[in-house]
Design brief:
By secondary structure, this protein is an alpha/beta fold. The protein has one domain: 4-Layer Sandwich (Metallo-beta-lactamase, Chain A), CATH 3.60.15. It has 6 helices and 14 strands. The longest helix has 11 residues, at about 35-45. The two termini are about 30 Å apart. This is Glyoxylase, beta-lactamase superfamily II. Keywords: Hydrolase, Metal-binding, Zinc.
Length: about 200
């Protein structure tokens, strides 16, 4: 399995293409849809789905063009089912950007094991930054796509609608830090890190 990172949009959000065999997952298509379409077509792999760690505007900006281009289902946690089409909830109303309005997700993410195409992974609920935040844990490969819960020496902000600092800290300590130290964390912003490094060096936790 290979994870390709693309820094996208006005907030420099990390979007990911995850590759395995001839299958491809799109995770958090944050913006710049033409760039992503060009890259997906260059890879000549079959997209299977769009997965969202959460529905803040800077993570969903390219959802509609990609969904239409490849006829893909979009997965999101049910706690944010209203956010896709609501700029006040997805946050785009409060930033100097065009308001982001998407169609609802096609399917809801549930905690636990999940399989799509060639991919087997676990969905972990990671509320705090937002109420429906999730992380995708690829146990066999020892990789985590963490969204905006845990960063390299940082944590997600909690001052947007329905964010909660205490919940986020609890999420990180009880859920993410329970994973093996060697697991590589691919966050929603900034560089990669590991669970072990964040246990030792993250000043917020």
């Amino acid at each position: 399995m290979e994870i390709k990172k693309y820094v996208l949009g006005q907030l420099g959000t990390n979007g990911y293409l995850v590759l395995k065999e001839d299958n491809l997952l799109i995770i958090d298509p944050a913006g710049e849809p033409n760039r992503l379409i060009k890259e997906i077509d260059r890879l000549a792999m079959k997209p299977k789905a769009i997965l969202l760690t959460h529905a803040h505007f800077d993570h969903i900006g390219a959802v509609e063009p990609l969904r239409k281009q490849y006829d893909l289902p979009v997965y999101l946690h049910e706690n944010e089912h209203e956010w896709m089409g609501n700029p006040a909830l997805n946050g785009s109303k409060y930033f100097p950007v065009k308001e982001v309005i998407c169609q609802p997700a096609d399917r809801y993410l549930k905690p636990g094991p999940m399989s799509i195409g060639a991919f087997d992974f676990t969905v972990i609920e990671t509320p705090g930054h937002s109420p429906g935040g999730v992380a995708f844990v690829f146990n066999q490969e020892q990789h985590i796509i963490s969204g905006d819960s845990l960063f390299n020496r940082g944590i997600g902000r909690t001052d947007l609608p329905l964010g909660d600092y205490d919940t986020l800290i609890q999420t990180i300590k009880e859920k993410l830090f329970s994973l093996p130290d060697a697991y590589i964390v691919h966050p929603g912003h900034g560089p990669e890190t590991t669970i072990g490094d964040e246990k030792k060096l993250n000043p917020f936790v």
